[in-house]
Amino acid sequence: MKRTGPTNEHTRKLIADLRHESATQKAVLWSRIAEDLEQPTRKRRVVNLSRLNRFTKANETVVVPGKVLGSGMLEHSIVIAAFSFSNGAKERIEQAKGKCLTITELIKQNPKGKDIRIIG
User: Which CATH class is domain 9-118?
Assistant: First the structure.
């Protein structure tokens, strides 16, 4: 049987939106994130706050094409867009004066995909 991609309708819509935005804005970033989200759930990226703290600088914008977990501390404010967040991760990001966004919200804020890093 051939794999057909995610069956969740919300994930499919997000992938279609990412591909559309990539084509219209000529932004390769959105296409790359769409490819990552098409992988099976068990292969999706999982990132702890400790890793985000280590590899980011203050006021940076980061995309995680997977889930952000609350293990570790975040010592500076960053904007994080992810497929999903754990409750602990959301609390710690907001305590550090950071922002949690969905990937769709980030597309609306920054359609060209400038100054955004993929972590995971």
Answer: alpha beta
